[in-house]
Design brief:
Layout: E1 8-9, E2 17-22, E3 30-37, E4 40-47, H1 48-66
Antiparallel strand pairs: 1-2, 2-3, 3-4
Length: about 70
C-alpha cells in the first residue's frame, strides 16, 4: 500500500494547510480534520452525517465561485 500524506495548502499563507482522514482509532464513523495555521495545530472530528453536510456545503460554495 502506498504511503501518502495529502495536505491542502493555503492559497495565501505559506506553511498553512488542512487535511482530513478517516480515523479508525476513536470511532468507526468519524472523520478527522487537521488544521495547521501560523505554526499552531488543531483538530476536529466530524461524524458521518456532518461530514456529508460539510461536503455538500463546500460544493455549494465552490459552485458560487464558478458562476
Amino acid at each position: 500500500m502506498a504511503k501518502v500524506d495529502l495536505k491542502f495548502l493555503d492559497a495565501i499563507e505559506n506553511g498553512d494547510w488542512i487535511k482530513c482522514k478517516y480515523d479508525e482509532g476513536i470511532n468507526n464513523d468519524l472523520i478527522l480534520i487537521d488544521l495547521h495555521q501560523d505554526g499552531n495545530e488543531s483538530s476536529i472530528y466530524l461524524d458521518k452525517s456532518t461530514s456529508i453536510k460539510f461536503a455538500k456545503t463546500l460544493r455549494t460554495e465552490i459552485n458560487k465561485i464558478q458562476d
